[in-house]
């Protein structure tokens, strides 16, 4: 078996083997489709890859090597394909790969040649022998190298170079064919090889399979890989997730997608922050900065701060506060739900949920434009003080927008998560308490967070944040400061116009909108300056306003607000049961904390040396939310960070039942059980059991003790009653199982990641004891148990019972605040606190059986009571060896097992705090938003069509005066086009505003059709020089190739006469077509349609190139013809394609005897050019030149490596 380094070519194979350093293989698709640069391989990688392929019995494979960018700039070969060819099928050790000969320098434009495909000059004495018949091969270079027949030593070439293993090529070269030429040829295994230009490599894949060598077919594998790749690409289009930090004044949107880390989305104005503002007109909508600018022109149709009305009903203090702040808006109320809606016009009204849905839909469009792919999964931030009604309203708004909400995360939790994610290394087992003070535009929240590492079941030690305390003020924020400033500026303006009989500026909505915008600017400027000049041009009645405002005046206006700054801090400390000494640092979050007075008061309240400002106050919540989105999405895997949020408002269950206090006297007793306590962690699930009910009953879910809220906050909070649960079917379940013992009515509750409470299911549980007779065990079962016990697999009563369908009991926890006697109290049980959403389907209506051994429960109870003592099971195991064997009757007796039956109970929910939007109304709202979105898209399409029409008119009118267009058109043609363009421009100005999108597109199509001939003639004349030059080069090169092919001797000819005749015919036909077409084109005037078309030139080039490529491909893969052995040889030649290393490797030692590693004997030293031409001998001695000796020495090393 022989290993030879084959040809060296210019990317001539559509597929190649990509092998990494570990020796793995990966078949890569067509380079043209993948469009990436190949990987660079070194010699060791090639050797490993070749060894792996040889063991699989492959006969040949390709490795693609790449040069450095510096090689390209120097004009050297920087991208070749080395084909390592092996003959035979024996499995041998890894062969050594020889380094290739020095690469020739590339010359694109050789002297005396027209520009065209790349040509290769003569590489010189150290590379290859020249071939006079193929000396000027234009499409590449032909070389002759080892592998033509025999192995052995180097040959003396006519040009003075020494090459090894010619076997015939050197002999022919010595017969008078040696001549220096600009191109060289190489023969690989007796066939001619060329180096294909880079632009033509992919055409070889279209050659006939008959001229290729037989290689392993991998069509099925490639097809499978293509399908998998297409699936992955389709899946990657939907992998992005987003987060929306929904603030009162503005929002921040962040995304994460494969290949792109967490990033804030830029809006259409390239800003990172987008105003939460919507402008609604009769026929159009505006969002973001566009809507904010419309607030000055149309304040009634511009809606802001509508999040404050989410979940609010008529009579809520926040509704009255909103009316006082923005009197220009007309508010109405839903007759059924008593919720607020905005009355834009008599026919147009929108609820706060619908407005929020519009904003969320707009935020998704921004994220999709930024990510360049559709997005449907999102995490939305909400204030920590949102109750159940407000959270459900946000979920309904997201549903209207078509978003899948992965989680509603509290904005303080998202901020804390962002802070902890970027400081993972600073978190250890020691608890660190950090206070976040977040003062935004509408509210203020203070949060105490504890960071430390905890041990998890899935990932070991991981960092964790736990919300320990929360305090808030719903109305303390930057908006209230701006409203104070606006009122101050209004008084100053009225004072300036006093006595002029002017109206109060407060009665003008547009003027008040201007004053509010100026107040916002003043608040920002006064944070860094002691005073500033407020000025508004044309505030009202074309009167300008100008006044000086100082920081002292601003602080005096907001003095009562600054006094409320320490309030949330005290609430957070009380709920966390901490003092300020336990808090390590206080970090500022939110835009309003930049006010100097706020920082001064807060620093005094917390008693720290300084306030922490090492976090992005505006974007921290958005970054934390998008990290949580990536963690919840199945498309990403992030480093675990445990988040334990806290319940702000406690939730309890209330129920009433009859009790018998005295004999014959029955009364009603009201019971309360805390379901989720204040500052308890969530998400979590709990189960409450009602033991004394055997008929249908009701219970209520309400908020718990809200004493930590003030009177005004309680009024804003709304209803404290959440839901009334009516159970149906309890009595029927008792009648269905009269002989079973009741274990109570179990209600399963879930407080999910979004902080939303839900009742999962209610079920009635019954149990009874069942004894199995000894005869129930069959003979086969006994035999199986006996065999299993012999191998340590015997069954015990515990393991036998586990085979039945059991209902897993939750861990019990005492009900908080319960003072009833044990027989009357309701059992409260906690489920696992792991943040896992319950997605399991409800249990079937059919009863489920469950068997739990009675003695197992007793054993567990005994083990809990005596944890230090040895458990009974351990005692049993310890004394099992000494105990005597039990009698046969005792072994057959089975313990009684517990059978459990579960019956689902019907549930009717009556929502009391805020009734959910009915499904028909929700569908109507969804359809309303979709219609508005479709209308906006249609408007954008119309504007795009109008802009395209207008741009085409102006561009074409300008082109009519350019020389290249005047050359191919007559004066009449230009006047006709100009007249039509002028008429279209006039139509667009007069009637274009009322034209539809279809009309605009039709007008543009009509004008393009009119100008098509003119543009076509200009484009064709621009393409002629390049296309004709390329065609001439290809014809010249093909003719030279055909001439060289015909000069090949008959014994070495690899092309048939039919093939060469076919190529000659194509060349002649192409020449004839070119000359005839150009002559005909010369007779036509420039204003007529040309007959010489660029597409026809390209078609002729492709046909000619296809024929040449066919012949070149045949030259690569055609096997050499066998040659008779030379009778004048002094010693017998080794077999064809064999070498000394092959002969040494074929020696197989006897079994049990190791093969001695012996060096390969060197060939005999002979001199003389005739012997060198006939025998593959190595030349060493006086007759050998230094280059020859050096090459022979390198060959010896290669042979030794082959042996190893």
TrEMBL record:
<keyword id="KW-1133">Transmembrane helix</keyword>
<keyword id="KW-0732">Signal</keyword>
<feature type="transmembrane region" description="Helical">
    <location>
        <begin position="219"/>
        <end position="242"/>
    </location>
</feature>
<dbReference type="GO" id="GO:0030968">
    <property type="term" value="P:endoplasmic reticulum unfolded protein response"/>
</dbReference>
<dbReference type="GO" id="GO:0005524">
    <property type="term" value="F:ATP binding"/>
</dbReference>
<dbReference type="InterPro" id="IPR029048">
    <property type="entry name" value="HSP70_C_sf"/>
</dbReference>
<keyword id="KW-0256">Endoplasmic reticulum</keyword>
<feature type="region of interest" description="Disordered">
    <location>
        <begin position="773"/>
        <end position="899"/>
    </location>
</feature>
<feature type="compositionally biased region" description="Polar residues">
    <location>
        <begin position="780"/>
        <end position="789"/>
    </location>
</feature>
<feature type="compositionally biased region" description="Polar residues">
    <location>
        <begin position="40"/>
        <end position="49"/>
    </location>
</feature>
<keyword id="KW-0812">Transmembrane</keyword>
<feature type="region of interest" description="Disordered">
    <location>
        <begin position="1115"/>
        <end position="1204"/>
    </location>
</feature>
<dbReference type="GO" id="GO:0140662">
    <property type="term" value="F:ATP-dependent protein folding chaperone"/>
</dbReference>
<protein>
    <recommendedName>
        <fullName>Hypoxia up-regulated protein 1</fullName>
    </recommendedName>
</protein>
<feature type="compositionally biased region" description="Low complexity">
    <location>
        <begin position="171"/>
        <end position="181"/>
    </location>
</feature>
<feature type="compositionally biased region" description="Basic and acidic residues">
    <location>
        <begin position="21"/>
        <end position="39"/>
    </location>
</feature>
<dbReference type="InterPro" id="IPR043129">
    <property type="entry name" value="ATPase_NBD"/>
</dbReference>
<feature type="region of interest" description="Disordered">
    <location>
        <begin position="1"/>
        <end position="50"/>
    </location>
</feature>
<dbReference type="InterPro" id="IPR029047">
    <property type="entry name" value="HSP70_peptide-bd_sf"/>
</dbReference>
<feature type="compositionally biased region" description="Basic and acidic residues">
    <location>
        <begin position="817"/>
        <end position="832"/>
    </location>
</feature>
<comment type="subunit">
    <text>Part of a large chaperone multiprotein complex comprising DNAJB11, HSP90B1, HSPA5, HYOU, PDIA2, PDIA4, PDIA6, PPIB, SDF2L1, UGGT1 and very small amounts of ERP29, but not, or at very low levels, CALR nor CANX.</text>
</comment>
<dbReference type="InterPro" id="IPR018181">
    <property type="entry name" value="Heat_shock_70_CS"/>
</dbReference>
<feature type="compositionally biased region" description="Basic and acidic residues">
    <location>
        <begin position="1"/>
        <end position="12"/>
    </location>
</feature>
<feature type="compositionally biased region" description="Basic and acidic residues">
    <location>
        <begin position="1155"/>
        <end position="1168"/>
    </location>
</feature>
<keyword id="KW-0547">Nucleotide-binding</keyword>
<feature type="compositionally biased region" description="Basic and acidic residues">
    <location>
        <begin position="846"/>
        <end position="879"/>
    </location>
</feature>
<dbReference type="GO" id="GO:0034663">
    <property type="term" value="C:endoplasmic reticulum chaperone complex"/>
</dbReference>
<comment type="function">
    <text>Has a pivotal role in cytoprotective cellular mechanisms triggered by oxygen deprivation. Promotes HSPA5/BiP-mediated ATP nucleotide exchange and thereby activates the unfolded protein response (UPR) pathway in the presence of endoplasmic reticulum stress. May play a role as a molecular chaperone and participate in protein folding.</text>
</comment>
<keyword id="KW-0472">Membrane</keyword>
<keyword id="KW-0143">Chaperone</keyword>
<dbReference type="InterPro" id="IPR013126">
    <property type="entry name" value="Hsp_70_fam"/>
</dbReference>
<feature type="region of interest" description="Disordered">
    <location>
        <begin position="89"/>
        <end position="185"/>
    </location>
</feature>
<keyword id="KW-0067">ATP-binding</keyword>
<dbReference type="Pfam" id="PF00012">
    <property type="entry name" value="HSP70"/>
</dbReference>
<comment type="similarity">
    <text>Belongs to the heat shock protein 70 family.</text>
</comment>
<dbReference type="GO" id="GO:0005788">
    <property type="term" value="C:endoplasmic reticulum lumen"/>
</dbReference>
<dbReference type="GO" id="GO:1903298">
    <property type="term" value="P:negative regulation of hypoxia-induced intrinsic apoptotic signaling pathway"/>
</dbReference>
């Amino acid at each position: 078996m022989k290993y030879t380094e084959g040809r060296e070519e210019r990317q001539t194979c559509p597929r190649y083997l990509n092998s990494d350093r570990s020796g793995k293989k990966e078949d890569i698709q067509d380079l043209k489709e993948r469009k990436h640069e190949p990987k660079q391989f070194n010699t060791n990688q090639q050797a490993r890859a070749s060894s792996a392929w040889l063991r699989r019995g492959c006969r040949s494979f390709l490795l693609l090597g790449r040069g450095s960018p510096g090689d390209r700039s120097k004009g050297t070969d920087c991208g070749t394909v080395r084909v390592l060819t092996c003959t035979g099928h024996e499995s041998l050790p890894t062969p050594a790969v020889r380094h290739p000969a020095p690469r020739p320098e590339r010359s694109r434009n050789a002297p005396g040649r027209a520009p065209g495909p790349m040509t290769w000059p003569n590489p010189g004495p150290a590379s290859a022998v020249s071939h006079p018949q193929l000396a000027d091969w234009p499409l590449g270079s032909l070389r002759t190298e080892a592998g033509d027949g025999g192995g052995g030593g180097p040959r003396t070439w006519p040009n003075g170079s020494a090459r090894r293993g010619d076997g015939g090529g050197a002999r022919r070269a010595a017969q008078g064919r040696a001549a220096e030429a600009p191109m060289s040829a190489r023969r690989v295994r007796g066939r001619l090889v060329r180096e294909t230009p880079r632009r033509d490599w992919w055409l070889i894949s279209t050659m006939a399979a008959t001229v290729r060598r037989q290689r392993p077919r991998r069509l099925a594998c490639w097809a499978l890989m293509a399908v998998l790749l297409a699936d992955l690409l389709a899946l990657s289009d939907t992998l992005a997730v987003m987060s929306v930090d929904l603030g009162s004044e503005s929002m921040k949107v962040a995304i994460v997608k494969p290949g792109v880390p967490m990033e804030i989305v830029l809006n259409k104005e390239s800003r990172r922050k987008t105003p939460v503002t919507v402008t609604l007109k009769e026929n159009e909508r505006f969002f973001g900065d566009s809507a904010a600018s419309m607030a000055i022109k149309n304040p009634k149709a511009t809606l802001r701060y509508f999040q404050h009305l989410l979940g609010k009903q008529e009579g809520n203090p926040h509704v009255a506060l909103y009316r006082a702040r923005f009197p220009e808006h007309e508010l109405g109320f839903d007759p059924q739900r008593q919720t607020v809606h905005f009355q834009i016009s008599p026919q147009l009204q929108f609820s706060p949920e619908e407005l929020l849905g519009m904003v969320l839909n707009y935020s998704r469009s921004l994220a999709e434009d930024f990510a360049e792919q559709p997005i449907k999964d999102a995490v939305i931030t909400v204030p920590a003080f949102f109750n159940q009604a407000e959270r459900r309203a946000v979920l309904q708004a997201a549903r209207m927008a078509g978003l899948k909400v992965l989680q509603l995360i509290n904005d303080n939790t998202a901020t804390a998560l962002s802070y902890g994610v970027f400081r993972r290394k600073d978190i250890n087992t020691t608890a660190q308490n950090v206070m976040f003070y977040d003062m935004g535009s509408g509210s203020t929240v203070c949060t105490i967070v504890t960071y430390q590492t905890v041990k998890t079941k899935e990932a070991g030690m991981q960092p964790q944040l736990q919300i320990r305390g929360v305090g808030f003020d719903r109305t303390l924020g930057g908006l209230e400061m701006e409203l104070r400033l606006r009122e101050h500026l209004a008084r100053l303006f009225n004072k300036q116009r006093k006595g002029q009989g002017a109206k109060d500026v407060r009665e003008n909505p547009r003027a008040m909108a201007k004053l509010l915008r100026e107040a916002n600017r003043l608040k920002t400027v006064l944070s860094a300056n002691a005073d500033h000049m407020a000025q508004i041009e044309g505030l009202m009645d074309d009167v300008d306003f100008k006044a000086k405002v100082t920081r002292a005046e601003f602080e005096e206006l907001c003095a009562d607000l600054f006094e409320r700054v320490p309030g949330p801090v005290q609430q957070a400390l009380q709920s966390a049961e901490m003092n300020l000494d336990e808090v390590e640092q206080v970090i500022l979050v939110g835009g309003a904390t930049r006010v100097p007075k706020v920082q001064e008061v807060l620093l005094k309240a917390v008693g720290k040396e300084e306030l922490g400002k090492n976090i992005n106050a505006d974007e921290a919540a958005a970054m934390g939310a998008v990290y949580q989105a990536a963690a919840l999405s199945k498309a990403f895997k992030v480093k675990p960070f445990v988040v334990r949020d806290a319940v702000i408002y406690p939730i309890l269950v209330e129920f009433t039942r009859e009790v018998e206090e005295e004999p014959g006297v029955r009364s009603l007793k009201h019971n309360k059980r805390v379901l989720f306590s204040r500052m308890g962690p969530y998400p979590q699930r709990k189960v409450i059991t009602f033991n004394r009910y055997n008929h249908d009953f009701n219970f209520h879910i309400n908020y718990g003790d809200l004493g930590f809220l003030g009177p005004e906050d309680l009024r804003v909070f709304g209803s404290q009653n959440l839901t009334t649960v009516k159970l149906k079917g309890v009595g029927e379940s008792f009648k269905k199982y009269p002989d079973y013992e009741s274990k109570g009515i179990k209600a399963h509750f879930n407080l999910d990641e979004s902080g939303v409470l839900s009742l999962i299911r209610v079920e009635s549980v019954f149990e009874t004891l069942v004894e199995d007779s000894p005869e129930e065990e069959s003979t086969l079962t006994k035999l199986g148990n006996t065999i299993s016990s012999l191998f340590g697999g015997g069954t015990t009563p515990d393991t036998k019972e586990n085979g039945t369908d059991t209902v897993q009991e939750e861990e019990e926890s005492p009900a908080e605040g319960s003072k009833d006697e044990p027989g009357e109290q309701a059992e409260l049980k906690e489920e696992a606190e792991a943040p896992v959403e319950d997605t399991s389907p409800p249990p079937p209506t059919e009863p489920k059986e469950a068997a739990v051994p009675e003695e197992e429960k007793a054993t567990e109870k005994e083990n809990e009571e005596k944890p230090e003592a040895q458990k009974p099971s351990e005692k049993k195991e310890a004394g099992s060896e000494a105990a005597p064997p039990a009698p046969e009757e005792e072994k057959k007796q089975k313990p009684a097992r517990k059978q459990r039956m579960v019956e689902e109970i019907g549930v009717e929910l009556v929502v009391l705090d805020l009734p959910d939007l009915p499904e028909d109304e929700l569908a109507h709202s969804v359809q309303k938003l979709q219609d508005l979105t479709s209308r906006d898209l249609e408007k954008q399409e119309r504007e795009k069509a109008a802009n395209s029409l207008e741009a085409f008119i102006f561009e074409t009118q300008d082109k009519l005066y350019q020389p290249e267009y005047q050359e191919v058109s007559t004066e009449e043609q230009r006047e006709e086009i100009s007249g039509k363009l002028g008429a279209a421009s006039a139509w667009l100005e007069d009637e274009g505003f009322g034209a539809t999108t279809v009309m605009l597109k039709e007008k543009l199509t009509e004008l393009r059709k009119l100008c098509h001939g003119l543009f076509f003639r200009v484009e064709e004349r621009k393409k002629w020089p390049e296309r004709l030059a390329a065609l001439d080069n290809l014809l010249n090169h093909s003719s030279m190739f055909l001439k060289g092919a015909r000069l090949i001797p008959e014994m070495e000819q690899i092309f048939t006469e039919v093939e060469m005749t076919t190529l000659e015919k194509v060349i002649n036909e192409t020449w004839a077509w070119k000359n005839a077409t150009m002559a005909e084109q010369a007779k036509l005037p420039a204003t007529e349609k040309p007959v010489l078309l660029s597409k026809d030139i390209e078609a002729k080039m492709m046909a000619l190139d296809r024929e040449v490529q066919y012949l070149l491909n045949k030259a690569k893969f055609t096997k050499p013809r066998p040659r008779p052995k030379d009778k004048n040889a002094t010693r017998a030649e080794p077999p064809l394609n064999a070498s000394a290393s092959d002969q040494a490797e074929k020696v197989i030692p006897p079994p049990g005897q190791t093969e001695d590693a012996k060096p390969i004997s060197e060939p005999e030293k002979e001199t003389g050019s005739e012997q060198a031409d006939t025998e593959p001998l190595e030349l060493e001695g006086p007759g050998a030149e230094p280059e020859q000796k050096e090459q022979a020495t390198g060959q010896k090393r290669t042979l030794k490596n082959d042996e190893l």
